[in-house]
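Risk register update: the risk that structure generation would not scale has been downgraded. Supporting records follow, first protein first.
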Amino acid sequence: MASITLLDGPLGTELGLRGIPLPAPLWSAWALIHAPEAVAGIHRDYAAAGATVHTSNTFRTRRRTLPETWAAQTEQAIALARDAVGPGHRVAGSLAPLEDCYRPDLSPTEPRPEHREMARCLARAGADLLLCETFPHAGEGWIAVEEAVATGLPTWASFTAGPGGDLLTPAELAAAARGAVDRGAEAVLVNCVPASSTHLWLAPLSELGVPFGAYANAGHQDEALGWHADPLDSAERYADLAATWLALGATILGSCCGTGPAHIAELARRYG
């Protein structure tokens, strides 16, 4: 089996489980201001579970959501991750859609300036790589990739069809990923689609000639892959599905909404 890179899992889900509010529009960024120790603790838990690439809590540290302190909060998020996970681990600076990651119709007509300043801030703050993630809009995702690549840091791109799987077809997501590779992305992923159907979007990525992978969500609660299901049982079920992703050639694995450290620990136990 090829060497597997293990990502971490979601911050938002874990913050909610720990009683930390996730108010709009800050969402998980609220915790940087009011509960930074909880953010650090979650990073530590994912490192202990076996993750070696840790995504910074910068999904919402944007000028449009934190006009006065966005840069300081972005730097803080990188520092929290770095200090929590220790040497030998990489911190991935998260660049997300400027608006709603499930509403491609809200993508701004000119997102470049904000993605540029965010990419540069993440690079200055000490990120090891930049992860342009959860993009349902190919054009905005490509601009984010271009600005991330321009920093000189390794850049990964992840696209989503959304929790209902209806925002991008597998062919559309593959075209988005191909455009990201053409613009310099070194790895491509699919994220925040139900784990039970992730293989449908993942299969076409095997033809792009770069490392690829997935960090899926737990899907509907009835699937018992996360959320309020037994964490150990749901982690085993998630890892069973991940075996199909590895069979397609994936070498990057993690998890998204509704999952947690138990899921990453089971991936590490089986495939790390």
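Supporting record for the second protein:
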Amino acid sequence: MVKIEDYGEYETAWCPGCGNFQILEALKIALVRCDLAPHQVLFVSGIGQAAKTPHYLNGNVFNGLHGRSLPPAIGAKLANHELTVIVESGDGCMYGEGGNHFLAAVRRNLDITILVHDNQVYGLTKGQASPTSLAEMKTKAQPHGVLSTPFPPLATALILGAGFVARGLAGRTEELADLIARAIRYKGTALVDIMQPCVSFNPVNTFAWYKERCRELEADYDRADLAQALVKAMEFGDRIPVGVLFEKEKKTFEQQLPMLAQGPLVERSFDREAFAGIVESYRV
């Protein structure tokens, strides 16, 4: 029986009041609900305050470079497709530096869970605008306001064919834990964009700001309706829908690779002669 204590308790480097604390707690609750022990999970992250989250958990951890969490996560999943792989980083790391990797991962549809701490700033480097910063938001690096159009992660994922897309809020731990658990159980690439106030560097998108705007999806909302999901994904203003916006079963990348039907690659022997023959076949 997996217990929340199995994932440990560590001193963090986060600012008091940071939304990362609630996300960490929600993740632990979700892992217990999924009955996953630490040795069954690989946590992969990039660089940033959000990317420190796996440091404060018992489990297998791989830290990639800034924006490079997804490539090693994909490699690990293909090497051992029976392993639960959770990728966790911030909006700057995932949608900025790692933007192309994010697009490729969604299109491939491997069975991985992507958790994005979306605080709409670069918190580690003291508050520059991120890809999801609201237009006209002023920072020390953008004193005249953000001029770029905000990147729409949920709509982008939907357009690229993502089968599970959700939006959560750091201040609602129980609801967020449920979203993360559903994302982990989903067979395919699951994106949970988590709105996370940054109490130090984002004075606009505060807990109070989100509390006024976040609303659960309607009782009759159809999560299999892509057109409806796209409309909800683009709602971000006076009203912000939270919950699972879209969920539909799809064939995963791993299911389409016949060599994985024989079992995880990591458990199979390595034939050096056969490999040498393959390399030799590419010589001109």
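The first strand starts at residue 41 and ends at 45. On this basis the risk owner (M.S.) recommends closing the item.
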